[in-house]
Design goal:
single chain, five-stranded antiparallel beta sheet, four-stranded mixed beta sheet, 27 helices
């Protein structure tokens, strides 16, 4: 593409379009109108609650707010999986300062809508800043690029993945900080800003999105490196960029270290290559960029497996949409053809190769198992366990947003050639021929048989949407060439509206919940009796404040208990209510969550020996965890009472006549410790490390169980070091820059 911010020195190439604030105002009003449509539910006191928003995000935020009300951080969540490390699982971002402030001091009716809707303006301002200040584009092009990025289909389709979208919204800000590390006189301060940006991304708890942002940042760094001759010391920029990212990663260790430990003991570690490649972007989805409503289901599912001659597809309206915008793509194509002399210059050759290579690689990664390069990631530790390769489309969208803004700047600042030669017309006719051919072919073919699965074609009126938007792009581009200055504004508006027409229905079909329902859910979580648990594959019972022994989680903990078939396992896990597809089943003889047991026995495989013991009187453990205990039956005078049912602390009063085993059917973790009357004591892992056991002596005892994760202590130490690096970069940026420049000059000498 044309070098950003550099205009041609020839007077004949200067645009006759003056800069008009009205163009920017119209674009801003268009973007604001579409954003208002996205935020429309909040006007009636509702929020989106579809898919992960309903099952995870909103219940987690309710729990997090309740934990902060109790002056806890919500690191351990007892509401699911008989308890799990809520902080280490990551997606709630419990350590992020913005989350702490919003959910501690604001009501849920304000904090949840803020988190759910504010990433779009954050992304818009970030991209606009990057395009205007880093690439030197005019205001119209910068505002347009910001709208294309922040209102892209990735933000629409992934609306249930709020933490992921917030991290993605950091990308243009990170790109801006990296560019300033190379070019600004205060590059140390921008390196400090970069460290805080990376820390913020990591603390939001979606490592896959941080990885994808990092790949895009590498492209930005390589782009700046191609312009090294324009900078006094590119080595200084590289060192400060690396120092900023390193400092941010250290701060993020407060989230990364617990997450790594949690991941290694979760079911995700067992993911196969087939599982990791689920939701690869099927190549047929790319055809939708010529006609977005080609198929009735909009997107084509990812082939999961074939059995008995039938193909089974996983079609997700959140993961698979790859519509970049037929108007946007046509505009980029037309602009490149018209301004090919400006674009395909010797100075732009390296940049074009880099741009096209990054675009092709990102698209191949998004195609996953269909792209042929996804297996390269299998050799990278942890990265190979990421799911949904289709998400790599976010890098393509970032690159396309930048390219479209540069093309608009060409239309605004360069006069197009007065005459188009034959090669121009041949190239310009190619998209039209492809679109018309697809349109005519689809009109005669109502369905396509693809691997024993039928893909049904939409009605002709919907098929016309793509060609119509393409025609608008052509008309506007030729009007711009004829000197019609208003056509550029129409073209920019059409590009943004094009994607909105395709993507807004994804939001409009979403289930809604009222803010009053969320408030009620918090009251139920606070007041409900948690003595008995429910079991359900989805998390809907959380809205009623129920404790779940299973559920739906991004990275679920490993669990050998069969809570859907094995009655003994259900009893041990204190499951009282099992939710079926239509009915709720009651397990009358389920054990209470906390109970006293007289006997402790050894077993090599405790879960296999359940049939051989009386579960009401005996518990099993490994011989290395505790000595066997045999005692008389529990008397009526002996008791255990739960005094304080906290999330990260349990306080119990116990009265026994002889040593007993206090059983808590919550999940065992090495990070839980216990004190009895102030004296530290170990927790015994029962039934193969699935439950907690405590040996309680005679007389009245006060038992206090607290969750104290070790990994977070190391994370805090690393975060402190990262903050020190960030402060040094900020306050000593001049001295650091002079030292690096001096070392570089000595090396070159």
């Amino acid at each position: 593409m044309l070098e950003p911010g550099v205009k041609s020195s020839q007077p004949s190439q200067t645009s006759k379009f003056p800069r008009r604030s009205s163009e920017v105002l119209i674009l801003l009003l268009t973007i604001a109108a579409i954003y208002a449509m996205i935020c429309a539910p909040i006007l009636s006191g509702k929020v989106y609650a579809e898919y992960d928003l309903r099952e995870q995000f909103i219940p987690w935020r309710v729990f997090y707010s309740l934990a902060l009300d109790k002056n806890e951080l919500g690191m351990w969540n007892p509401f699911m999986f008989r308890g799990y490390d809520h902080h280490a699982e990551g997606q709630s971002g419990v350590m992020h300062p913005a989350h702490l402030l919003a959910y501690k001091f604001l009501p849920l009716s304000i904090s949840i809508p803020l988190e759910m809707f504010c990433y779009i303006p954050f992304a818009f301002i970030g991209m606009m800043t990057f395009l205007a200040r880093s690439l030197g584009l005019p205001r119209t092009a910068a505002v347009f690029g910001g709208g294309v990025f922040s209102l892209s289909v990735f933000f629409y389709a992934h609306f249930p993945h709020v933490n992921m979208l917030w991290i993605y919204a950091h990308l243009p800000w990170a790109a801006f900080a990296v560019e300033r590390c190379f070019r600004s006189a205060n590059c140390g301060r921008y390196a400090s800003l970069l460290s805080l940006i990376y820390a913020s991304m990591l603390l939001l708890g979606h490592p896959q999105m941080v990885w994808m942002n990092t790949l895009a940042i590498i492209v930005v760094v390589l782009h700046i490196s191609t312009e090294s001759r324009r900078h006094s010391n590119p080595r200084c920029g590289l060192i400060l960029t690396g120092a900023g990212i390193f400092g941010g990663c250290l701060i993020g260790m407060i989230q990364l270290l617990p997450s790594l430990e949690y991941f290694l003991h979760s079911s995700r570690i067992d993911f196969t290559k087939l599982m990791s490649s689920n939701f690869s972007l099927h190549p047929l989805n790319l055809i939708l960029n010529l006609s977005p409503y080609l198929f009735i289901d909009k997107s084509v599912g990812d082939l999961f497996y074939e059995s008995a001659g039938n193909a089974y597809f996983l079609n997700s309206h959140q993961e698979l949409p790859a519509y970049l915008g037929v108007t946007i793509m046509t505009t980029i194509y037309i602009g490149t053809v018209i301004y090919r002399k400006e674009v395909f210059t010797a100075t732009n050759k390296t940049r074009l190769i880099l741009f096209l290579s990054a675009l092709a690689l990102s698209m191949l990664l998004a195609l996953g198992k269909y792209g042929g390069v996804n297996h390269v990631l299998d050799v990278i530790p942890m990265i190979s366990k990421f799911r949904c390769p289709a998400r790599y489309i976010c890098i393509v969208i970032f690159l396309i947003s930048v390219a479209s803004a540069i093309v608009v700047s060409l239309f605004e600042t360069h006069k197009p050639p007065t005459r188009l030669d034959r090669i121009h017309w041949v190239l310009l006719s190619a998209p039209v021929v492809a679109s018309v051919t697809l349109w005519i072919g689809s009109a005669f073919c109502r369905s396509i048989s693809f691997r024993n699965t039928m893909l049904y074609i939409e009605d002709a009126r919907y098929l016309a949407i793509g060609p119509v938007f393409m025609l608008v792009a052509y008309i506007c581009c030729f009007l711009i060439r004829s000197g019609k200055k208003w056509a550029l504004t129409v073209l920019c508006v059409a590009c943004i509206v094009d994607v909105a027409v395709y993507a807004l229905p994804i939001l409009q079909r979403s289930e809604l919940r009222t803010l009053d329902q969320i408030k009620t859910s918090k009251l139920k979580m606070k007041n409900n009796d948690h003595t008995y648990r429910h079991v359900s594959k989805l998390n809907e019972p959380l809205w009623n404040g129920s404790f779940l022994a299973n559920g739906y989680l991004g990275i679920p903990p490993r669990d050998d208990l069969d809570l859907f078939e094995n009655r003994d396992h259900l009893r041990l896990a204190s499951v009282r209510y099992a939710h079926g597809t239509t009915n709720t089943f009651v397990i009358e003889d389920a054990f209470p969550r906390i109970r006293l047991v007289p006997n402790l026995r050894h077993a090599v495989n405790p879960l296999n020996d359940l049939k051989n013991i009386d579960l009401s009187n005996t518990v099993l453990c490994d011989k290395n965890d505790a000595s066997e205990i045999t005692g008389p039956p529990i008397k009526s005078t002996e008791r255990v009472e739960l005094v304080a049912d906290g999330f990260e602390a349990l306080r119990l009063d116990v009265k026994v006549d002889v040593p007993r085993i206090l059983v808590v059917s919550d999940r065992w973790s090495k990070d839980w410790d216990v004190s009895i009357d102030g004296v530290e004591q170990g927790i015994i892992p029962l039934f193969g490390r699935h439950m907690r056991g405590i040996i309680v002596g005679t007389s009245d005892k006060e038992v206090l169980m607290r969750y104290r994760p070790v990994a977070i202590r190391w994370g805090v130490a690393c975060a402190g070091l990262g903050l020190i690096i960030s402060f040094i970069l900020f306050f000593q940026d001049g001295a650091i820059t002079r030292r690096i420049q001096s070392d570089s000059q000595c090396t070159s000498t």
